[in-house]
## 1
Amino acid sequence: MDNPPLAPEALAPRLAEVYVALGPVYRRVARLVEQDEQVSGLSVGVRNVLDQLRRDGERTVPQLARAQDLSRQYTQRMVDQAAADGLVELIENPAHRRSRLVRLTPAGKKAITAVLERELALLERVGGDLTAAELDGTLRVLHHMDLALIALEEDDR
């Protein structure tokens, strides 16, 4: 094997480099999304709710909150804002009488599609001759980092 897995003592400092690199990238993306709010009218929180509904379909507020690792209260405020703007609707949930499902409206589908098209146009400007294998590796690393953090949170409970 030409590229064996790193031992934990070698892996940890390399993962720390990933955290250091990820912070500024995340903040820049958040700023771009916030700037886009002036064009799209969608806050970062509402944008995330709409995108999650687009990807995953109807969800309850607690399901939306868990998937984004956000508080239920914050997510409820984002859903309420999206509903007030006509971007989502709350429908009966056959599995639970008190927790309604959140569903995209046609206006919500149109809004999130337009935002994603603008975002993809920006992402097409990323250079570096990146390969699918490199992106697969990046996603694998981030997934394992996330799983480790989830385990730490559960240990602290």
## 2
Amino acid sequence: LGLVAFKARSMFLASYVGSPGVWQFDRIPGDVGCVGPRALCDAAGLLVFVGEDNIMAFDGTRPRPIGDGVVRAWFLNDLSPTQKHRTILQYEPSDGRVWIFYCSTANDSSSAPGTPDKALVWHIARNAWGLVSLQVDAGLMFTSPTSTMDVLSGTLDGLPVESWDSQIWLT
């Protein structure tokens, strides 16, 4: 998708164009922006973000709402208007889900105001939504350490007889 910059209610797509300009910034159609610095994520070629009035997905051409008719009204009513800038999005590639961690309206009077206390979860392939109640401080994707051929002893002939896309090679 290239670099996307957000400012107020405008979104720009940065494209590498080479010399002499190097970068070209084009305004994306529509009056859209992001509610906070961590309220977006790259999810399998889509840029998913929480805007002022909807949850959106940008595929490189134009942003489209993904919450309409399903969760939009409920989410906007549950999202704390004073703490929406603390929204965090995280993509989970192994299951194709986008996690939207946010501060709910109940969080405003909680013992830990400002800490996201709920997560709206979108499964991209099924276009299904779920809700989780939990407190989070940050969203991150953990990747376990990998093995290389250097740590294996013996020869390639001594390796297990497994196909290259087997689960055994994931670590």
## 3
Amino acid sequence: MSVRTSIAVLLALVLASGTASAVCDTKKRSAIKFDRYEVKQKTAYDKQRRLTWQRCSVGQTWDGKSCLGPVDSVTWDDAWDAAYHAGAGWRVPTKQELLTLISLGCHDPALNDQAFPGMDPDSLLYWSGSQDSNGVWIVNFASGGLRQYRGQIQQYAVRLVRSGR
């Protein structure tokens, strides 16, 4: 097998995996280090912000090492329903809370993927629970950006959070 063919096969396998793997420059001050989190299987406790995050996006399952399966794309109302059904204090995070996950030292996705593995490269827009008269806030984990939408019928991903441990 030629080098070119080997590279093409390897690239196809990586793309077929269906998960985004962050490209990070850990030397940048803006990169969030893994030791910021206390990780326990399905959750990551942010010691700095005192928030506990679900490591997997809604729709995915934890297999002991990573988040598997497709990320659910849901309406804003369905995001709130998912939080309600998760119980135990889980909720849709505010835009400020979601922005604490952004690691500007990383991109595609712009977060620490050791703490939050298995991000879907096709589902990097996440609902926040924040809204005002101009609409609902969305966090873009591809770039770390913030957007606002008037409608609530679009479908995006959601990652749940709760205060404290």
